[in-house]
Design a protein that fits this description.
Blueprint: H1 4-19, H2 22-46, H3 52-79, H4 85-114
Helix pairs in contact: 1-3, 2-3
């Protein structure tokens, strides 16, 4: 159920990726995610976490990747020659799987070292 917003935005992202230049989609989604991450950081740091934070997190974690992912996947065949396509797809899959494993491991180490409030435990 948690992935349903991302799935919905992936359907829209696929249509947009077919009609708009993929580079613009990738850059635009990265800019939006960077802006929402910055705003969320400011809201949390200042202790002002209003209802706006929920909307920003929705945009950052579901809408952004949902729109970016189809454009990214459609961009790879235009960058790689046909003979190298299986290797490019494998490397792309490895990238995502490594990020899924390494990210939480690093977050766990940071949490153990810094504590839940971001100060040394």
């Amino acid at each position: 159920m948690a992935a349903s917003p991302s799935f919905f935005f992936s359907l829209i992202g696929g249509v947009v990726a077919d009609r708009v230049e993929r580079r613009k989609i990738l850059l635009g989604s990265q800019y939006v995610q960077m802006a929402t991450a910055g705003l969320l950081t400011i809201l949390v740091t200042t202790g002002m976490v209003p209802r706006l934070a929920h909307s920003l997190s929705f945009i950052h974690f579901w809408a952004g990747p949902g729109l970016r992912r189809p454009a990214y996947q459609a961009l790879i065949p235009t960058l790689v020659e046909k003979d190298d396509m299986p290797n490019a797809i494998a490397l792309n899959s490895i990238q995502f799987n490594v990020a899924v494993m390494v990210g939480p491991a690093l977050a766990g180490q940071a949490l153990a070292k810094l504590g839940k409030n971001g100060v040394s435990a």
